[in-house]
């Protein structure tokens, strides 16, 4: 079951991590060991989370890398589902009675 229009992980980072701690983008980027430009792209939904970034976030905010990657996957999958009808794919299923 899919969540309806899940937020981009960048929104979650801003609202649940940076804002409550009163961190600026520059301060958070320095703490994460990344450029301000990279963090800004994530926060504004222009870039997704890589596994390495998920690990950085897990260390910085005492969370799990898996939780960050799951958020990214849910967001990406929902976005892709919105384009499902535009995909030109042939069904490749067997009509064999042995299939389940």
The fourth-level CATH homologous superfamily is lambda repressor-like DNA-binding domains
The CATH architecture designation is Orthogonal Bundle
What average pLDDT do the residues reach?
Answer: 94
Overall 3D geometry? elongated
Defining key terms:
57% helix
Can you offer a commentary on this structure?
This protein has 100 residues and is an all-alpha fold. It has a single domain (9-86), classed as 434 Repressor (Amino-terminal Domain), CATH 1.10.260.40. Helices cover 57% and strands 0% of the residues. The chain has 5 helices and no strands. It has helices at 9-21, 25-32, 36-43, 51-61, 65-81. Helix 4 crosses helix 5 (65-81).
Secondary structure blueprint with pairings:
Blueprint: H1 9-21, H2 25-32, H3 36-43, H4 51-61, H5 65-81
Helix pairs in contact: 1-3, 2-3, 4-5
């Amino acid at each position: 079951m899919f969540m309806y229009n899940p937020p981009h992980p960048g929104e979650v980072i801003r609202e649940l991590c940076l804002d409550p701690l009163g961190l600026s983008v520059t301060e958070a980027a320095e703490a994460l060991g990344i450029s301000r430009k990279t963090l800004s792209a994530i926060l504004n939904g222009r870039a997704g989370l890589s596994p390495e970034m998920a690990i950085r976030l897990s260390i910085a905010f005492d969370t799990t890398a898996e939780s960050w990657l799951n958020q990214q996957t849910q967001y990406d999958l929902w976005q892709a589902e919105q384009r499902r009808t535009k995909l030109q794919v042939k069904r490749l299923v067997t009509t064999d009675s042995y299939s389940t």
